[in-house]
Structures are given as C-alpha cells and as structure tokens.
Amino acid sequence: MKIIKLIVAFFLFSNCIQKIDDRQNNSPERKIILSSEALKVKITFFQIVEYNNSNEIRPDTMHIQLGSDKILITPKGKAYKDGKLFFNIVPEDQITELFIYQIENDIIVLYVYSDGESCGSTAKRISLNQNRIIWSTHIYALNLARPAVKDNSVYISTLGFIGKLDLVNGKFIWKHEDLFVKGNYESFNEPEFMNDSLVLFTNRVPEMIIDSIIINDKNGKIIKMN
Questions:
Q1: pLDDT tens-digit profile of 58-100?
Q2: CA–CA separation, 72 vs 87, rounded Å?
Q3: Taking 90 as the threshold, does the pLDDT of residue 208 lie above it?
Q4: Which end of the chain is more exposed for a tag (fewer CB within 10 A), N or C?
C-alpha cells in the first residue's frame, strides 16, 4: 500500500501538481483550519487539500468555516452555503490546493489548479456581498507556499519566485523571478517578517545550502541571498 502511495505521489509531481503532506485520516472529506493574525489586519487562514481515495487522484469536496458560516467548495470552485451558491472562484481548472483569507466582506483566494498534466496558480479577490471577482492575478506555478498577509498586501512564493501583491488592485508591488537555479529556491516556507522593513523567505528543502532570501520590503530589493 505504501509503495502504491509513493508511486502516485511521484506521478503527481511529474505532472506539475503540488506535493502535500500525507494525511492520516482516510475519510474522503477532510478539513484543515488554521488561524493567524498579521499585525494590523486580523485574518482567518484556511488551507484545504482534498484527495479522492482512488487510483485517479483528484481533489474532493472542500469544507471550510467562514465566520459562523459553513461553506462547501467543489473542485470547480463553486462555494455553497445552506445548499445555495455563495460565491464562485471560477478557476481555470480543478482546484488542488486552496488558501483563503477573509478581509471584511471580501475573501482573498490563492489556489493551485491542474488538469492532471499541467498546472498553474492564481490569486483573486472576491466580493461576498456581490459574488463577483474584483481582480484576478496569475502567480507563477508551481509549489505555491502558504502566503502571509500584512496590512493590505500578501507575500507569495512559488518555484523560483517571490513577490508582494497589493490586495486592493491585485498588482505586484515588487517581485523576483527566475530564482530557481540547480535546485535552489524550488519551494519556500511561509514568509517571515524580521522587522518593519525586512522580509525573510526560507527554502523549504532543508538540505539545500542556499536556503534563504532577505528582501527590503520598502523598495523590494534583495538584501541577501544565501
């Protein structure tokens, strides 16, 4: 059984799908709810990764809690509350990983999508009152890491990429691309704030000698790479 799971995991990686931690719960419906607070903006963080227990690996139904509301989200991005459509993420393909932040009456969704052969990542701001997408931004798949929100910005990292995205207009305030060289900066941990002006991105792969990047948040310049 373990060998089968390893083969399946390797197949997913080869097809550009995010690698995730194995879950002990074998139920087809699972949920992970984590909370955090980012300085001046109180946010609620959700990370949902769902799999169907079959040879054909695909995302299953996702369940989250938004305030007092229990929300069901399908792999196609449709969110239902009390059996009625609440909002629609409108993903490019099936969602395989999803991060949600609620800010007032809007939500920020960052997700990985895949058709089984290729994948991508997108960030969107969606109005819950109007059920409409305010902005949508491509965020460079693959290996989308858990983002961090501070004030009106979200800090994002993927394969060979780090950036700061404005939550008001969905535009990058600063970004650095093409960082992936000889296996370095393949994937990152959640960004850390060292003080009011420095942001630390650490490599998620522990055996890498080159494992961190420090950014001056004020101007977006790289202070140190090691």
A1: 456 788 877 788 888 988 999 999 999 999 999 999 888 888 8
A2: 10
A3: no
A4: N
The rounded distance, in Å, linking the Cα atoms of 73 and 2 is 29
Instruction: Using alpha carbons only, give the angle 39, 130, 132 rounded to the nearest 5 degrees.
Output: 80
Question: Do 120 and 113 contact (CB within 8 A), yes or no?
Answer: yes
Cα–Cα distance measured from residue 110 to residue 178, given in angstroms and rounded to the nearest whole number: 21
Query: In this structure, are strands 148-150 and 132-138 parallel, antiparallel, or unpaired?
Result: unpaired
Whole-prediction pTM: 0.73
Q: Which residues pair with 123 in a beta bridge?
A: 110, 137
Out of 3.30.1490.20, 1.10.10.10, 2.40.128.630, 3.20.20.80, the CATH code matching 2-184 is 2.40.128.630
Query: How far is residue 60's CA from residue 213's CA, in Å, rounded to a whole number?
Result: 35
The 10s digit of each residue's pLDDT in 151-197 is 889 999 999 999 999 999 999 999 999 988 777 888 899 999 998 89
